[in-house]
Amino acid sequence: MDHTDVLTAARAAYGEGDWGTAYRSLSQARSAGELGAADLALLGGAAWWVGEVQESLEVTELAFQVLEDDGDAEGAAMRALDLALLWFTRGDVAVTSGWLHRARRLLTDRAEGTAHGYLAYLDGSLALARWDLPALDRAADDVARIAQGTRAPALRSLHLVLAGLADLRRGRTSAGFGRLDEAMLPVLAGGMPPEWAGEVYCTVIHACHELGDLERMRAWTRATEQWCERFRGEVVFSGICRVHRLQLRCTEGGWADAEEGIERSGLELEGRNNWVAGEAFYELGEIRRRRGDHDGALAAFARARTLGVEPQPGESLLRHALGDGEAAWSGLSGAVAGRDGLACARLLASGVEVALGLGLADEAARWCARLEETRQQYDTPGLRAWAAHARGAMQVAQSRYADAVASLEAAAREYRGLRCRYETAKVYELLAQAHLGAGRHEVAAGDRATALAIYRELGALPDVRRLDASRLPAGLTEREGEVLSCVATGMTNRAVAETLVISEKTVSRHLANIFAKIGVTSRTAAAAWAHEHGLPRRG
Length: 539
Fold this sequence. Notes:
By secondary structure, the protein is an all-alpha fold. It has helices at residues 3-15, 19-32, 37-49, 53-69, 73-89, 93-107, 114-129, 133-150, 153-169, 173-188, 194-210, 214-228, 236-252, 255-269, 274-291, 294-306, 314-321, 325-336, 345-357, 361-378, 381-397, 401-418, 421-437, 441-458, 461-467, 478-488, 493-500, 504-518, 523-532. The chain is elongated and about 90 Å long.
């Protein structure tokens, strides 16, 4: 096959989404002779799809240079925008900004065309990343105007993405998701360049996950996986879809099945799409935290952070479970600072749990109220569940047991609808405390048994150990277990005595026995031991 035939076959393969064949054929053609800018652009795109990201960047930059040298400002600007998108998905905002500057320079004083629309879209994406809603609105309007003038379906989709995200940020949830749903239609119809189609999909899925609309996330993940089936071979986008599918699988409780796959996907996507790779490692940390693999969880959370994903609230929940309440609260407080209500909703929900465990009643109340304000503004299934869960936990701590039952039953209904198995178990555990406080011992025993059964099914070993009080570790008596549980929350001997209605002298004697049995010499070490062995916290 001569050079021309190889190029013809390569172009046909690219058009059919056969990225592997296109990549091999274009690489062969390049080794046999110099490629023009258009074929270099195809090679760059094919390289990205088969995971050769560094080569993709290098070849696309070469295509940009050829076009700029030839005086094709519009073509060079599009290659610059492709590179900006690739760097943006890798999480490097500085390099993204540099390529946008190049594109803007090339497009200055030129009549508005499709390249101007892509430029405006990326300007809007950067505005959203820095929470600049007025700039996001301006970018959305620019893309809409250019889409109308060019009649480009891809730009119409990108406008809907920006406008939908602006709606969501302002609490117009129904309108926002409606626009994002519409934005996905050109993606599935093949009406967008593949790389930009991937950007739309990831943006829509992230919005679904952030707002806790898991059914919509499931629907679009299934639809996009079907779209991926039209391409031949394993491609980067298949890995991105796999991460989102495994995120949902983890929500449903399939931790053992998902752990290996999500770690592998994170490793494969590292350097290709660092945002999604970071999400994968965060999810891996959550699986390990809940299964009791503390060192593995910390390692996964650290990996997520290096990829630009803040590993909260999981990392702080783990620190709290290990007895380092100060680090847990500091981590959550730092993550919440400067974020809007929507961006920190999950953090607020976990913050209420940590604050109550540390005895920070006023902080717990403030965070709970802020979460409820966010729920009222956005009103998605996930936010309804998180807010009701947090309020129920507050009401249990305040001994308002009837109110707590109503709140927690509402949370349980939402969690069941979302198929959130672990969160459902957490709610049943709180329901058991509420019913017990109200004197309904049989109902409490049933709820506790339900929570324990779910924890066992999931493999949530720390929670199983905490609830399965049939045998305390290290030969501790029931009273010693109660004293240690109180100490683990940071209580003084006086506070423990008041909580358990015993004398401070008796508390001291119990502590001496506890230290001897578990082999420690300090309250801090005892608290860490208690958390490690899953003793229930008292507050």
